User: What shape does this take?
Amino acid sequence: MDDTGKAIFSVILLVIGFAIAGLMYTFTSVLSGETYNIVEADIDAITSYTDNNQTVVVYNATWVSLGNATIKDYHFYNSSTFSDNTSAFSVNDTTGYIRLNEDSENKDDALNNSAIYALYMYDDGTIRDAVKTGIHSNFEAQQQIGDYMPIIALAIIITIVISLIIGGIASKFMTPAMGFGGYGGYGGGVL
Assistant: This one.
């Protein structure tokens, strides 16, 4: 096979290679996007908890925010007697609000308008946020690869074309008719 045939074969292989790379890129992009859509609810359900101890003032039958959502393992202590008064509260685990239940027998509840210590754990979202950040950076990396694929293909094609041009020029000057190797009257002819 001559140089031109090799070059044509190389270009055909290059086109096939980039077609396969493009298909694989599209396939992996779509597959990773679909996979993310399928598991997004599971990722959102990932929790990581941090301890918190804070003081809040509570009032009868009034919801008070603890400042953090998704709480668990909570205990509420009277700030003056340090007795556990958790049973005197209604708790919304999802929003992180607590309410002092009004004492039906004694409307002037001892905890009303008092400071209590709220000890609880809240979902800080650290692991969930790390997983989402990793997935989003993967999508950004795929996007950058897709953006650079045409430039890489163009560089390889330009390299092949330049090598063909240089090879063609070199073959014109390196032939036996030009006198190299003792042919054409140069170097070693008879006098």
